[in-house]
């Protein structure tokens, strides 16, 4: 993997993680007996709490862990350092995508828990 290819491949999950957030996320709730105006206020507040979880920083951490883990595994399995750079690059890209995706899931889970804590029945 050339350096330019590696940087481009790593940039995609990092940029996507930076764009991902819960600002427009609307979980499915049971609306029976729910005051719509109060729900909208609570949803805005819960989204704000969830946005404290940073997908970009988790993507970077995933890239670091992915690169190290994959390079170490390949070095041990192949008993050679010939493929370290390539395997580290692949691991970094995969780790960045996984870390960013996990953060988005965590943000949605935080919105659910927040709304649940305020008495809403979150269905999905």
From TrEMBL:
Entry superkingdom: Bacteria
Keywords: Lipoprotein, Signal
Signal peptide bounds: 1-17
Name this polypeptide is given: Outer membrane lipoprotein SlyB
Organism: Halomonas organivorans
Organismal lineage: Bacteria, Pseudomonadati, Pseudomonadota, Gammaproteobacteria, Oceanospirillales
């Amino acid at each position: 993997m050339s350096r330019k290819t590696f940087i481009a491949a790593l940039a995609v999950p990092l940029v996507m993680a930076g764009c991902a957030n819960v600002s427009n996320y609307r979980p499915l709730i049971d609306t029976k007996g729910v005051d719509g105006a109060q729900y909208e206020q609570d949803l805005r507040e819960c989204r704000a709490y969830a946005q404290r979880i940073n997908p970009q920083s988790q993507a970077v951490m995933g890239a670091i862990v992915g690169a190290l883990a994959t390079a170490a595994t390949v070095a041990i399995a192949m008993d050679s350092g010939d493929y370290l750079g390539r395997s580290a690059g692949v691991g970094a890209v995969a780790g960045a995508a996984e870390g960013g995706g996990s953060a988005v899931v965590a943000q949605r889970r935080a919105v659910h828990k927040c709304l649940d804590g305020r008495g809403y029945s979150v269905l999905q």
